């Protein structure tokens, strides 16, 4: 439920009302919408007499919220959330590009790619150290060594790093990671989400292969309800009957999510399409569609990549894509 207070409500009046809500066992979130204060109430609201509440002199109106997600709901938080990653801002008009290889392979490889993508305008470096693979015989990543190499690339370039976690037991290894990525297969790993909620570290949450928008937001809610509100949502394509692309990129999710939630929304055209020649047009389309950022796979030698080489851009291709994305940003801003 949402209670909107009238302009001119004093701090003392507001404080007394919040205390009364809390005495009823409700959690209260407070946001400013222009000159009005919005109080979001989370919990069992059956004890609240809505008609009585609306009769209070300081209350403008009361609205019931039917959606099951609360903390991620724009109705509770009208302003865009801006996630700050070591000075790199995502959301609220700020556009970020995360780029790098699917997997960290060698020190030379990750540093070469990191330097190239930074030169082209990327603001964060991605790289997989722990890799979820469909086949148990495929390359699973360098694990702790991969994280060490990512840290070295960060030291050389200054780019904050984004990498995927597979298991809550690995959390100690991710202490120095700037953004922890939750992959599509772990989007509903609720025990992992609860543990990530106890951190203050930004979390990049990818939509699952066959999950709805509501399910994505409910996964975000698991993290937020445990205390961490630094979440970036990522559309990476969903599984449909189409076979010409790896997945089907649902660009309509961008305006839908922006309507439903205050959290920033980025798009991963690499995993969505699975083909490097489709990454650029889909990156441009996502930018034009209002995405808060992009996540693009870049490899210095895609044919020799240990993972997902077919969908990886070369540094030169990434540079060309970035030039076009910048021109689109100039139009849509």
The spatial strand order of the largest sheet comes to 7-8-9-10-11-12-13-14
What class, by secondary structure content?
alpha/beta
- The rough form would be described as elongated
Distance between the termini: 33 Å
- Helix tally? 10
Evaluate the radius of gyration: 21 Å
Beta strand count: 14
Q: Spans with pLDDT under 50 lasting ≥5 residues?
A: none
Query: Order of helices and strands, N to C?
Result: EHEEHEEEEHEHEEHEHEHEHHEH
Biggest sheet features: 8 strands, parallel, barrel
Helix share, percent: 25-40%
The mean pLDDT is 93
User: Percent of residues in beta strands?
Assistant: 15-25%
Kindly summarize this structure in a few lines:
The chain is of the alpha/beta class and 333 residues long. The chain contains 10 helices and 14 strands. Strands 7-8-9-10-11-12-13-14 form an 8-stranded parallel β-barrel, surrounded by 5 helices.
Describe how the helices and strands are arranged.
Elements lengths: L1 E4 L5 H13 L3 E7 L2 E7 L7 H5 L4 E5 L19 E3 L2 E3 L5 E5 L6 H14 L3 E3 L17 H14 L3 E5 L13 E4 L7 H8 L5 E4 L6 H12 L6 E5 L17 H8 L4 E3 L1 H5 L2 H13 L4 E5 L17 H18 L1
Parallel strand pairs: 7-8, 7-14, 8-9, 9-10, 10-11, 11-12, 12-13, 13-14
Antiparallel strand pairs: 1-3, 1-4, 2-3, 5-6
């Amino acid at each position: 439920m949402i209670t909107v207070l009238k302009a001119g409500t004093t701090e003392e009046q507001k404080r007394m009302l919040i205390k009364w809500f809390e005495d009823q066992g409700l959690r209260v979130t407070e946001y400013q919408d222009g000159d009005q204060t919005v109080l979001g109430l989370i919990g069992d609201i059956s004890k609240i007499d809505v008609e009585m509440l609306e009769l209070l002199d300081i209350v403008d109106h009361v609205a019931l919220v039917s959606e099951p997600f609360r903390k991620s709901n724009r109705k509770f938080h009208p302003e865009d959330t801006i996630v700050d990653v070591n000075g790199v801002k995502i959301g609220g008009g700020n556009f970020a590009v995360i780029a790098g290889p699917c997997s960290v392979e060698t020190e030379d490889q990750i540093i070469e790619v990191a330097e190239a993508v930074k030169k082209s305008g990327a603001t964060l470096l991605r790289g997989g150290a722990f890799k979820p693979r469909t086949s148990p015989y495929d390359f699973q990543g360098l694990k702790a060594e991969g994280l060490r190499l990512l840290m070295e690339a960060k030291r050389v370039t200054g780019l904050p790093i984004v990498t995927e976690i597979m298991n809550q037991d690995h959390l100690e290894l991710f202490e120095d990671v700037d953004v922890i990525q939750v992959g599509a297969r772990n989007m509903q790993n609720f025990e992992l989400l609860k543990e990530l909620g106890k951190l203050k570290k930004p979390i990049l949450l990818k939509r699952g292969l066959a999950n709805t928008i509501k399910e994505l937001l409910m996964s975000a809610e698991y993290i937020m309800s445990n205390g961490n509100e630094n979440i970036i949502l990522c559309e990476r394509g969903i599984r449909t009957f189409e076979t010409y692309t790896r997945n089907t990129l649902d660009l309509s999710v961008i305006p839908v999510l922006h309507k439903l939630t205050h959290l920033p929304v980025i798009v991963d055209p690499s995993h969505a399409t699975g083909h490097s020649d489709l990454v650029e047009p889909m990156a441009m389309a996502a930018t034009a569609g209002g995405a808060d950022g992009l996540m693009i796979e870049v490899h210095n030698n895609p044919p020799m990549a240990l993972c997902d080489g077919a969908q990886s851009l070369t540094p030169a291709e990434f540079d060309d894509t970035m030039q076009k994305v910048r021109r689109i940003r100039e139009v849509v801003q």
